[in-house]
UniProtKB/TrEMBL annotation:
It comes from Mycolicibacterium parafortuitum. GO terms for molecular function: oxidoreductase activity, acting on the CH-OH group of donors, NAD or NADP as acceptor; quinone binding. It holds the Pfam family adh_short. SMART domains: PKS_KR. Keywords: Oxidoreductase. Residues 5-187 form the Ketoreductase domain. Belongs to the short-chain dehydrogenases/reductases (SDR) family. This is Short-chain dehydrogenase/reductase SDR [Sphingomonas wittichii RW1]. The keyword Oxidoreductase applies.
Amino acid sequence: MSTDRVVLLTGAVGGIGSELVDRFLDNGDTVIACDVSEETLGGWRARWDTHGRLNPRLVTAAADIATADGTADLAEQARQHAGRVDVLINCAGWFPIVPFEEMSSDQWRQVLDINLTGTFLVTRAVLPLMKNLGWGRIVNFGSGSTFDGTASQSHYVAAKAGVIGLSRSLARELGGYGITVNVITPGLTVTQAVRDSFPEEILAAQRERRALQRDQLAGDLVGPVFFLASDDAGFITGQTLNVDGGVFML
């Protein structure tokens, strides 16, 4: 399926986000790739340039998604560049490991701000660029950790559970505009950030729990997200698609 959609994606520099950027660009879409800072995006663009992969349909935008001003500026950049947003993918996330009794109020708020409030703010800012199209796709990233909890990540699990509730409510509210809203819940996906945060014994334990008995990689999420962003998923909304290699069978 080749299209000329405009796709806005947050968390673009991460392992999952960059794989998604590749997939939509390969499909012929315009991608507005958002991450937290120009410095982060600059390093990412330099790596792409080194490999000859810079694309005129790729637009990068730095934004603090945890603030109303940052997300309003992001939406304005999208409006100026493309005039619309057909697909919104809220992929940005942060998952620090902090035992509950050691967690400060600031740490709690920071994780909810990025994972839950950021999803709310970006969606609210972008909706005016989508509602009048009569067609739209919103794919939000949850987490498989919401199904059984994760020790020392209560703030993250609570935020991702909130994303599921938010998405179901938005699906009810936006269906009349032809906009679908769905959630992807990955298992523990082995990106560089995960390798930096989790010891190998945790990754090995995850492999043993999976029916498919291998590491989950960023590329495993690309097909499911691309499907939910397509015409083929036009009658699917308010759903949570769990992609974890068979840890949870829901």
